[in-house]
Amino acid sequence: MLSVLKAIWAVLLHMFRPRVTVQYPEERPHIPPRWRGRIILSRDPDGEERCVACYLCAVACPVDCIALQATEDGHGRRYPEFFRINFSRCIFCGFCEEACPTYAIQLTTDFEMGEYVRQNLVYEKEHLLISGTGKYPGYNFYRVAGLSVKGKDKGQAENEEPPVDLKSLLPGRMESEQ
Amino acid sequence: MSEALRSIIIILSVIGGVMTIAAGLIWVERRLLALWQDRYGPNRVGAFGLLQVLADMIKVLTKEDWIPPFADKSVFFLTPAIIAITTLLTFAVIPFTSTILVADLNIGVLFFLAMSSLGVYSVTLAGWASASKYSLLGGLRAAAQMISYEVFMGLSLMGAVMLAGSFDLRVIVEAQRGLWYVVPQFAGFVIFFIAGVAETHRLPFDLPEAESELVAGYHSEYSGMKFGMFFVGEYIGITLISALITVLFFGGWLGPVLPPVVWFLIKTFFFIGFFILLRAALPRPRYDQLMALGWKVLLPVSLLNLAVTGGIMLAGR
Amino acid sequence: MRDAFYISAAVAFVSTLMVIIQKKVVHALLYLIISLLSVAVIFFTLGAPFAAALEVIIYAGAIMVLFVFVVMMLNLGAEAARQEKSWMSPRMWIGPSVLAAILLADMLVLLARGPAFISGGNVVGPKHVGMALFGPYLAGVELASMLLLAGLAGAYHLGRRLKKEELAERETRR
């Protein structure tokens, strides 16, 4: 019985405590930089889109909200013909960002995505692509991975190192370097 | 002003006032709960969120009013009205001041007990008519809980009735001019308050609706304004019990300086606030604990209180 | 008062009739509650407000709730209705109806003879009821209280929680 009265008294005293609610639209909450918010597609420093349409993000996505179609330009460079993210399904798990080999797909700190029409939550490539590099300013996938052009495979051009052997556990370069 | 016109005005203002308070309690309760839980509560719609009441009303009125095909339609339809009507009718005998009251009934206390015992049907039959397991369990719990607590709710009142020598609520208030009955009848007050919480099935004793076990208990299948009636009925019930505590134990409209109605409202709102504080502070007991508390503690104490009061009155004669 | 009496008497009559002819038990009980309420109004019009309040509190409010409570748990369906229908053979209802007809005739004769009821007499308040109960009818009250006490003790005996040994003993006896 006494504990009941004590509980009532303790709750009553909460009247004089400060409130913990953040009054959101006026008062902005602190969003950490690694926040997993709206998904964007970034470009490399040269202004080309980073995405190589490898489908890894679409495969990694647990709710299947990413849809894309790969195509190639005249030089054999792959890019997505369309790239569609259905944000009404997206759970913002960030697996697509982890799966992406080219840092193309990235999650941002933006979370204010309310819409009155559900269809508007389906973002196409033009909605997703930003003009900058996102979280990785200097990174250019083809500078690191190399690019095979007509007559020359990866690593055969001047001043170009041979590509990394992905199937070996050993560190360092392939036999040409040893 | 003719007598008939005067009564009509009083009746309309009592109904209007009670309904306004009951609707306003939606907002009051949410704001107070928030206050005691370090939150803000509804503060967006209108000044201080006051228009939240209006928004809630529009919402509940425009919601689809769905009757489950397996339900017993006529009873399903009837039950929400019962609770609203019985609680509202009881306000007819509550004296807001010595002049503002609808009916000066010489059995006012008994009328309240009669109405509250009829209110049980609302909850019980709602549970039965929904033809759903959770509703039925809620209805069963409600029936057992409410008739058990009615027993010593009646007994706890009798102390005050004995001291005043009347069932008339106005006479009871007048008899408290010297000393509020909360002093000589403290046990009666505590028991009446606990029984009142159980009778309105408010939060520590909301086992008939226990959302963590029974979905929403007896009103699981109700939607739209039928659910709204249960909701409003509950708030009218809180107002009623608070008003009765004020009348029976805290001297009703009596008080210095301020006008009588203001005193009455201040006291009533104090107890309404206490109802909400109980909700904020206390967890729900198990069902058998509730019953054990009622029959093994409150009933003997209220009988003892009655016997002691009677003995002292006889000795003092 | 006179109009109120006749209206509530009519309500009591109709609702009691409905109690008998309703097929669903809960609906029948609801009509019975209405019937009790109208009887309470009749008490009120006859100048016995205390009895009226007690009628509502005890009969309509407590006893009928227990009836509803039990019926709710029985889960009576179409099967029960069919079974009941088979019981309603003429042989079964002819006896009670004859008795009821005698009562009706009795009442009609009484009504035809003289003033039907006394209305607006002196009001019987709680004090009078109490004086009557603990004055001339003391023996009856005491007898009833003893009966109720016996019922209470019996209910407690039946509903008590058995100890382990007792349970085991009961099992072996079975």
Describe this structure in words.
- The complex is a heterotrimer of chains A (178), B (317) and C (174).
- Chain A has 5 helices and 5 strands, in the order αβαββαββαα.
- By secondary structure, chain A is α+β, with helices and mostly antiparallel strands.
- Chain A has a domain of 115 residues: Alpha-Beta Plaits (2-Layer Sandwich).
- The N and C termini of chain B lie far apart (45 Å).
- Chain C is an all-alpha fold and 174 residues long.
- The interface between B and C is medium-sized, with 29 and 24 residues.
Brief summary:
The complex is a heterotrimer of chains A (178), B (317) and C (174). Chain B is mainly α.
List keywords for this structure.
heterotrimer, B: about 325 residues, mainly alpha, about 70% helix, C: about 170 residues, 8 helices
Specify Rg of chain C, calculated over alpha carbons.
Answer: 22 Å
End-to-end distance of chain A: 82 Å
**Which range does the strand content of chain A fall in?**
5-15%
- Considering DSSP H and I runs of 4 or more, what fraction of the residues of chain A is helical? 10-25%
Q: What's the arrangement of strands in the largest beta sheet of chain A? A: 2-3-5
List the helices and strands and how they pair.
The complex is a heterotrimer of chains A (178), B (317) and C (174).
Chain A: H1 2-13, E1 39-41, H2 56-60, E2 66-72, E3 78-86, H3 95-99, E4 105-107, E5 122-123, H4 125-128, H5 141-145
Antiparallel strand pairs in A: 1-4, 2-3, 3-5
Chain B: H1 3-36, H2 52-62, H3 73-90, H4 108-129, H5 133-164, H6 169-174, H7 186-199, H8 211-214, H9 224-249, H10 260-281, H11 287-316
Chain C: H1 2-21, H2 25-45, H3 49-74, H4 78-87, H5 90-113, H6 126-134, H7 138-159, H8 164-173
